[in-house]
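Reopening this one. Same input as before:
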Amino acid sequence: MIKSIHQSIWFIALIIAYKELQTAVIGLYLIPNTLSAFAEPVLLLVTSKKLRDEVNRAVNKRETCENFIHIEGE
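Same output, byte for byte:
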């Protein structure tokens, strides 16, 4: 959706011949492209029940978990 909004703004700027907006939108291409490329895999990982369960277990048992380094004074 983010990428389609970006392309729509660019298309409208092209149709009305608004050069400054075209330049600004083209300059911002990397932001919507990056978000659309990486948002889905990250959301799939974050919303995965197995991953959430593992993170929850690690956070709740931080003191005894061997995967975490114990810092003195905590």
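So the earlier flakiness isn't reproducible anymore. For the record, The radius of gyration is 22 Å.
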